[in-house]
């Protein structure tokens, strides 16, 4: 029953919602588990659609509305621990030392990328862009490192003391 009914239900309910998100069903008896974002002015029409579906399936399916729920958003975060040894390795790839700054990273990356980029004439038998990939990873890691340092410094503004550990955490929102 689930395979036959579930594709049409989101379409019928989705007509009354501005967005929807399908979730995994909890067991084999559940046909659909979804969240619908309904504008306040459309709530009555959405509820009427659910009630009409309930009548249409003559209690073969039980429809339940859980809500309204408070507004919330889900984000996927990527948190990377950037240890000092790892940062030193990435600086070495770009030919930099511990005194380098963000501008030095950008300048060194652009200079080395001009030579290592796979679109540049590369002799036969070359590594087909592997050097450029290593450069790009070093640049992106150092970019994330300096961004995390800036964010960390601004969040500590007005607080005494600093984190004495040799690790910086880079946090990216992926979606």
Average per-residue pLDDT, rounded, comes to 77
Unreliable residue runs? 1-6, 157-162
SS-derived structural category: alpha+beta
**Oligomeric state of this protein:** single chain
Which percent bin holds the helix content?
A: 40-55%
Strand order of the largest sheet: 1-2
- Total of DSSP H or I helical runs spanning 4+ residues: 6
Q: Compute the gyration radius: what is it?
A: 27 Å
Strand content: 5-15%
| DSSP summary, beta strand count | 4
Shape: elongated
Order of helices and strands: HHEEHEHHHE
Largest sheet: 2 strands, antiparallel
Distance between the termini: 34 Å
Quick summary:
The protein has 175 residues and is α+β, with helices and mostly antiparallel strands.
Could you explain how this protein is built, in words?
With 175 residues, the chain is α+β, with helices and mostly antiparallel strands. The protein contains six helices and four strands, in the order ααββαβαααβ. The strands form two sheets. A two-stranded antiparallel ribbon has the order 1-2. A two-stranded antiparallel ribbon has the order 3-4. The two termini are 34 Å apart. 9% of the residues are buried.
Task: Name the descriptors.
175 residues; alpha+beta; two-stranded antiparallel sheet; two-stranded antiparallel ribbon; 44% helix; elongated; disordered N terminus
């Amino acid at each position: 029953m689930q395979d036959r009914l579930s594709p049409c239900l989101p379409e019928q309910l989705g007509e009354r919602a501005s967005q929807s998100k399908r979730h995994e069903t909890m067991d084999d008896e559940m046909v659909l588990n979804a969240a619908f974002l309904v504008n306040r002015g459309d709530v009555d029409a959405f509820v009427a659609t659910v009630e009409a579906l309930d009548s249409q399936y003559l209690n073969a399916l039980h429809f339940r509305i859980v809500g309204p729920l408070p507004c919330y958003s889900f984000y996927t975060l990527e948190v990377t621990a950037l240890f000092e040894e790892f940062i030193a390795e990435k600086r070495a790839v770009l030919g930099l030392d511990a005194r380098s700054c963000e501008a030095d990273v950008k300048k060194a990356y652009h200079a080395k990328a001009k030579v290592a980029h796979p679109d540049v004439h590369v002799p036969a038998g070359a590594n087909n862009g592997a050097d450029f990939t290593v450069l790009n990873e070093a640049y992106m890691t150092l970019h994330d490192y300096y961004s995390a340092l800036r964010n960390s410094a601004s969040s500590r503004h007005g607080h005494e003391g600093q984190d004495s550990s040799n690790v910086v955490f880079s946090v990216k929102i992926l979606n």
